[in-house]
Structures are given as C-alpha cells and as structure tokens.
Specification:
Length: 399
Amino acid sequence: MGPARDPRRIELADIVRAHGAAVQQAQRLTRGQHRALRAIATCRTSALGGHTEGCDVCGAVRIAYNSCRNRHCPKCQTLAKERWLAARRAELLPVEYFHVVFTLPHPLNPLAQGNPRVIYSLLFRAAADTLAAFGQDPKYLGGELGLIAILHTWGQALVQHLHLHCVVPGGALARDGARWLSAKRGFLFPVRALAAVFRGKYLDLLRRTFDRQEITFAGRAAGLADPKAFGEFLAALRQHAWVVYAKPPFAGPAQVLEYLGRYTHRVAISNDRLVSLEEGVVRFRWKDYAHGNTVKTMALPSEAFLHRFLLHVVPDGFVRIRHFGLLANRGRAAKLARCRALLALPPAVPPAAPESAAALILRVSGVDLTRCPACAQGRLHLVARFRPGEHPVPPLDSS
C-alpha cells in the first residue's frame, strides 16, 4: 500500500474500469491483454483482498488492499524496480558506460502487432549481435563486452515505436581473459556503421524466420504472406533509414543506476501524465520531441486510448530486460570477478538481504508506511487479513 491517493487525480485504472469492458467486447485481445486490463482495474481494491492495520497509540484502523503486481500497471513498478536495481549495483564497474538505442523502422509495426514475440526477439538478437561483433573487432576493442538491453515499444503519444535501450560498459574482456580492454574516452562505436550492420543482421534474421514459416500474417500485414511480396517488403526495408543513436557516456556507475531506474520498469504511460477523463474522452500530456520537446496535451476517445495502451502489453512470459556478453546470466559472476581483478578492484560486495516493502518505500520516497497517518505518533500493526472479494471487517467503536 502506498500513500493516500488524491481523489481529484485520474488514474489508468479509472479509465479501464469505465471503458475496458467495451474494448474487450469490440476488439480481439490476447490473453495477456485481458489479464492486464483485469489486473489494472482491480489493483488495490477489495477484489484482490488485503488486510487491516491498527495504531498502537490512538487505535485508528487503516485498510490496505493488495496490489496486482502486473508489470503493465503504473502503480506496481516501484518495488520491482528498486529490487532489480539493488541486484545490479554490485555488477557495475568503475568505467564509462554508454547508452545506445536501436530503433526499428515503423513499416515493421503491422508485422509486430501480429507477431510481437518474434519481432521483439529479433530486435534483441540483432542489436546484441551487432554490439558483440563491434566489440570483438580489434579496431575497436577486440574482446567480449557486456550489455543490458531494455525493450520499449512506445512513443510519447502511445503510438508504436519499437526500440531497444542498451547500456554498455566502455570496455571488453580480452579473448584470453588476461586483459581489460578500455574503450576510447567518450567513444564506443561509430553509429552509422552500427546502423548498417544492425539493419543487415535484423533483415537476415527476419528472412530466415519467414522461411521457417514462423510468422503470422493478418490485418495490414496480410498481403506479405506471399513470398514475392515479402521479398519486396525486405528490399524496401533495406532502403529505409535504420536509426541507431548513441547518447553521451554516463558520468559514472551512480548515473547508470539513476538512468536504469527511469527506464527498466517503465510502463507505456504513467498516471502522472493523465489529465482528465470526461464524456468518454481521455486527455493526457505528451512531449513532442519533433518540436523542441514541447509538452502538449492530446485528447483521444477512451477506447482509442486503451487500444493504444494495449499495443504495449508484451506477450506472456516475454522478458523485457535482458543481459548479454559479460553480463549474461550464465557465467556473469566469474567474468565480472575477473574484470574487477584486472581493474585492481576488491571483490564485489554481495547484495544485502532484500528489504521489506515498507523499508524500501521509506528509503526511496520518505513515506513511512508503518507510522499512523491519524496521530503521526503510533505504529501500525496487523489486525486481520481478508481474502479477495471479501470486505474488511469494520473497526469496533472504541469510544
């Protein structure tokens, strides 16, 4: 349970409760999309159960409803994000870190709508293979680099904008494991060369996937089922601009963690950006990057708004944050220990035991969930739990 909500603020859950059923009836949704709508609508309500807490000083009773913990719910990401960051803290090296973004051309969007798992997986593989190839090239590093890749599927206006944020340490472990090979200060790889190799790798993977008949063709992509049409589609994509963008390097590991905290567990839209829901129209703030990052307000019919939101519900079980190379789960501890030794660093401090939810929220937000909100003196303790669908027992009159 978090801080009390301002009743004047609109939330995504309000929009889903009011108009989600109409979207479910009008559109053919995936199981994951249905599940996301149900979770968001019932998050922190009696439908999910909860518990009551009582103050040991004034006797006030507070009701705390359970969270849905769905990864698409804007209210349920703080704990997951902070725990993930705590696990990453010990893996950071005192080197420059680079931020590289790989973006898929928008003509791939219709194909992605019917094949999200395929299109997203190829994006991860092509980007990781591209960076690995440049890392192994003696002209740049000549060894194995590492990276964390984070999938985002949206732009500010909730339209499809498929891109991968990659955080890359500025160096590599030599093939023989005997040296740490540092990148040139302020420079990792040339972005135009990265874009050309990325395009080639992605389209080659896409062609192979088509040849194995692992792509479904429906909707606006239905005409691509014909081999000739698909070949022409690939040829057109080769002429399209494939954007790879490298941002300035981070100042240090602390800035890397700050950045990762903004991106890792982000959902398509936060409640903070929602302005209003009136007469079936949703208004929300968005940043227009094409016009000087101007903050504007967009109005959409509620069902159109939810349709856009649902474009960004990833398939069940799909992993949005992946680690490659030195940071791949398999062998990560041993490889990072070797890197630390080569950099003359002491062994990494093991992550501390996981914090409780209350302790974590106190650390990151300053809100003490154990302090009584009524008297601000007492501590709250568990009184009773209630199951999903049950209503909490009203507190006894202690007067």
